[in-house]
Amino acid sequence: MTAGTFATGWNRLSGEWKTFAWMVGVFLLAYYLPLSNPKVTAAIQEAFRLLQWYARNHTLACVVPALFIAGAVITFLSQASVMRYLGPNSNKLTAYSVASVSGGILAVCSCSVLPVFAGIYRLGAGLGPASAFLYSGPAINILAIFLTARVLGFSIGLWRAIGAVAFAFVIGLLMATIFRREEGERVAAQAALPEPEAPKRPLWKTTIFFVCLVAFLVFSDWYNPGDVVVRTASGGQFAAVALQETRDDMTFQLKEDWAGHRSGEKVTLAKKDLAGIQEAKTWVIAVYHARWYLAGLMGLAVLLMTWRWMDRAEVGQWMRNTWDFTKLLVPLLFGGVFVVGFISALIPETYVASLVGDNSLKSNLVASVVGAFWYFATLTEIPICEALGKLGMAPGPMLALLLAGPAVSLPNMLVLRSVMGTKKMLVFTGLVIVMATITGMIYGALR
After folding, report:
1. Residue 232 in 3-state DSSP?
2. Residue 245 sits in which domain range?
3. Both 255 and 115 in a single domain?
4. Do 379 and 303 fall within a single domain?
5. Contacts of 209 (CB under 8 A, 6+ apart)
6. pLDDT tens track, the chain, 447 positions
7. For the packed helices 422-446 and 127-139, what is the interaxial angle rounded to 10 degrees?
8. Residues whose CB falls within 8 Å of the CB of residue 205, separated by 6 or more in sequence, listed in order
9. Final residue of a domain: which of 257, 281, 305?
């Protein structure tokens, strides 16, 4: 038996064992899950509520456009261009600057950045720049940073801004250094490939096409900070932040005491019990209400360019690449969101706050780990931190949560494992946790 044959057989056997382990795990969970326990049944309901919110408010608006962008990256973007600006041998300052700026422009959550990351990584981007892009997408969010400064204080907003930019560079450099041997092998393998074909279109056409694709994603997933005044059918009124909306109800985080609930607590109300919701009047909200018109305009531009500039074979390849990413990423994203909803319902915020009441190593580490596994939609980390602060969370752990939370999550980890392997996923997550912990401790000591 040759080494190649043995390796092929071993990989197939390993894959079969993983499938069997998943089947056994699901069986044991279904067999032993204590459905008579009220906490467990409430957690299952909360898991489905989070999954429905994700499907209704996030999947079509953000994940699907990101999947089409990822497919377009593989199909239309020149490999030579990616290698020139983001490749392992490109100028480091240029590569990491391009990766950080590109990720920051997207301003998406830790899950929605994954399809585009997978696209540029598979097209030949170096692990370091790709990791910088992976962190910067959800972390370097200009609106989130300004909102952090307004709600939680100028100093923590400033530290978040500086920390997010620095993290993108440092994590990228460390990933490239730690896995330099594997990256060297990857570069050698890419060098052995035949020269890529010359681009079929001039650069300006490709640039306009991708600008419109990204603009569609930005507008369709335009975030709403959620500051509202809620009027109930019974005549009550309260100021809050809207966190989640499902088909039948809405979840708010109170900004003032109301009906026996303290400021910072979450309340879920059926839509039939709501008399009206008044939103804050800002330019961000104005764009939010016009987002589908703006996204539609960008979508029409993409369709027109596709019709005039791409042939049928290219479009077919684009759809196939998009479908391949969809099969790879969406099941893991949905499964991860469900698990996060289930676990978060079993761990109340008061318990989390009790573990992060000072600026010690333990408190900052707990905040970083909780943030890394929790799923935060865009901007929701700010009202959650505000509520935890009212429950006693110290400033250092709050910054650690803000730096680790938006960048990674359990769904994010599941997808990363399938894209770049278990080892790289664990190292990337570990670097985020360690750096967030250290930064939180420094900030807490200087407060």
Report:
1. strand
2. 227-281
3. no
4. yes
5. 72, 76, 302, 305, 306, 309
6. 554 554 455 555 555 777 777 788 778 888 888 888 888 888 888 888 888 888 887 788 888 888 898 888 888 877 667 777 777 777 788 888 888 777 666 666 767 778 888 888 887 788 888 888 888 877 777 777 877 887 788 888 889 888 888 888 899 899 989 998 887 776 666 655 555 566 677 888 888 998 999 899 888 888 777 788 999 988 889 998 888 888 889 988 888 888 888 887 888 899 998 988 888 888 888 888 899 999 999 999 999 999 999 989 989 999 998 998 888 888 888 888 888 888 878 877 777 778 888 889 999 999 999 888 887 776 777 878 887 887 788 999 999 998 998 888 888 888 888 888 889 999 999 999 999 999 999 998 887
7. 50
8. 305, 309
9. 281
Terminal CA-to-CA distance of the chain, rounded, Å?
Answer: 65
Q: Tell me the one-letter amino acid at 37.
A: N
- For residue 397, how many C-alpha atoms fall within 13 Å in the half-sphere facing its CB? 28
pTM of the model: 0.78
Separation CA 401–CA 111 (nearest Å):
17
176 & 263 share domain:
no
Q: Which amino acid is at 434?
A: V
Residue 30 located in a structural domain: no
Instruction: Tell me how far apart the alpha carbons of residues 249 and 255 are, in angstroms, rounded to a whole number.
Output: 19
Residue reference for tokens 């987002």: 291
What is the Cα–Cα distance from 22 to 34, expressed in whole angstroms?
A: 20
Q: Which two tokens stand for residue 236?
A: 């009550």
Q: How far apart are CA 283 and CA 118, in angstroms?
A: 33
Burial class of residue 2 (count of CB atoms within 10 Å of its CB; 0-12, 13-18, 19+): exposed
